[in-house]
Amino acid sequence: MATALTRRAALGTAASALGLLAAPALSRAQGTARLLVIGGGFGGASAARFARLHHPEVEVTLVEPLTRFVTCPYGNLLLSGFRGIGDITHSYDRLRGRGVRVVHDRAEAIDAAARTVRLAGGETLRYDKLILSPGIALRWGAIEGYDEAAAERMPHAWVPGDGGQIQLLRRQLEAMPDGGVVGFAIPPNPFRCPPGPYERISMVAAYLKRHKPRSKILALDAKDAFSKQGLFQDGWRALYGGMIEWVPASQDGRVVRVDPAERVLETEFGTRHRVDVANVIPPQSAARIVLDSGLADTSGWAQVDPATFASRAAADIHVVGDAGNGAPMPKSGYIANNTAKQAVASAIAALRGVPPPEPLYFNTCYSHVGEEYGISIVGIYRVGPNGIVEVPNSGGVSPRGDLPEQRRLEALHADSWYASITEDMFG
To answer: Whole-angstrom Cα distance, residue 401 to residue 399?
Structure first.
């Protein structure tokens, strides 16, 4: 109970800090401040809506090439059949209704000195502050043989797009014979959504158990441990018996090359695994515009001020979502949502010439292991002397054990979380 009280108090503190900053408006004498947001996902859409709600005097423009947003969270549930594509597809119309100018184009180049962004369609947008939330880029070629063409045979399904990749993976599962093998290649840290591959394994297993029960899953991992590992493996044993084989890096689990034509996954020490369906999730970096603009370091991720998420390379650009390095916080939708709000609040504070609010970041990550079987992990983070630190005793993971009611409730809580956060982004 003490942990739950700590979380509630912390969340209240964060909301109060952002609300206090939101109250005073920018002086009209300063003219209309221009807030430009690039990327319409969990970070960008959250930033645009938060800015319009709390700072109506600011001109907000959102640049996003897609006309509808298909979320990665809950995308895995398409593979099990627990959700359809319409359930995870969202429109930008309500953001427009709140006064956000939504431009469906691709941001091609940022000139940080001139504070301009050039779009693929030729338009140049000016900004006073930029919230950059473009997501990730897949590192094509990091696994030998895995490029964009290979992804049409071995889908990654790891960027939202129009949902085509996750639907391709679903079709491949449907076409696979009973008794086939589904192979996974799982990347090293850091990458988008640390528990995501293991929820996906679970949802594929749920599909196979109902429709192709003689089939197997081979999960080849570039790591020796993963998020919520004990909880996932408990669920796999309870729900799917021996269907899932997880191979860690220390047991030759790291995939280093693929043969898309033969559907072969080859590991570090030369073991070749032929599978019927392959989901290859390659290593990742910040999106291309972050790299091309010089906002990332040699790690491939943007380095930011942990208190404001302002870029270390350009103070008027705040990088949120998966493109930035917010370690030890995970690259999750929830972190993107609340760091986006802190970035907006900090950007407006800078325009007003006042200090930013004290940051408090929080993460709740739910995963589905089966139908009515959910697990979660929670963490709250502050800025310490040397960067972001987790608040002691602020979080934790679901309890382990035979707890069917706990698992059922967590699955319901996951559904509520998804409805709430997408409403917060787009509503």
So the answer is: 7
